[in-house]
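Good day; I would like, with your permission, to put a structural problem before you. What I wish to show you is a protein chain and, alongside it, a tokenised description of its three-dimensional fold. I would ask you to consider whether the tokens describe a fold that such a sequence might reasonably adopt. You will find the record immediately after this paragraph:
***
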Amino acid sequence: MHPPKIIISGGGTGGHVFPAIAIADALKARQPESRILFVGALGRMEMDRVPKAGYEIVGLPIAGLQRRLTTKNLSFPFKLLASLRKARKIVSEFQPQVAVGVGGYASGPVLRSAASRGVPTLVQEQNSFLGITNRILAKKATAVCVAYPDMNKWFPDHKIILTGNPVRKEVLDFAGKREEAAKAFGLSPDKTTVLVVGGSLGARTINESVENLLEMFHAGEFQMIWQTGKHYADRAQNAVRARNLANVVATPFIERMDLAYAMADLVVSRAGAMSVSELTLAGKPSILIPSPNVAEDHQTKNAKALADRDAAVLIPDDAAKRKLPEVLSKILGDASWRARLSENAKTLALPDAAEKIADEIFKIILKN
């Protein structure tokens, strides 16, 4: 039998790139001889991260269509046509047995080109609400791996496999690390700790809301790890120093998310698909403040999927500055509320997603 040949396409953000790498790792663990080719977008983070993970990647000149009037949109049709031509060439030369789309700019041209040549395709949909690209791609897909139940309003039942989202295993390896984490962050292992994350670039609303509530930490009863993103780091660190808060650590980026989760008794976060998946797998109580600046407001739908099951508290972005201090104070003072949110979050967790998706990919290969 020849080694399986698989294309994995997509990227643009860590929320797409890291799951794609996790799927590739699961494929290699099952069949080490598998040949895997990534296809990404030139200039995006996958072009750096994928080779570092040990995989070959080819870039397309694709870019997104801006949602505001800008001259950048003038080049969009030309980049799309060039990407479709290059994607056809890649599929023709590599001859994959299956093409996998994880979302992001490159998924569209690659899966469309693969389907037009009769190559089976698999779509990995991370969100609880289907974006336009995946709506189109799913029509011809052999299988659609989803992270939320009740997705049959978008897809035929026979195509849907509930797998969850692949999450980096090292992020969730935090059991028994609280003492180590406390030393790493310079905090107490015994105090109730808030972890604030707004994504790798930070989130302005979350950062400004947290800055406004720093007085809550003066008493020293609680402590906080505040990932600010690089653009807000100086302002946040100055605000912490000005208030002489030794129990608040403001940092632009957290390298060891396992240690951050080891400390976290409550998480304040955006509601991107991967963040939500991590929180359920980690079983962390959370306050979710969805970003309003995403396609079709899918973060609100992700957050609502948890909030409707009493597995998180949802605060709209435009209400965060007003509501976050009150909600945060109430949850910090109510251990039973935190425990309930944690238990309910765990019931929504779908572990071993990468391995389940790898299983589906190999099933498709064996059938064809």
About this structure: The chain has two domains: 5-165+351-367, 170-347.
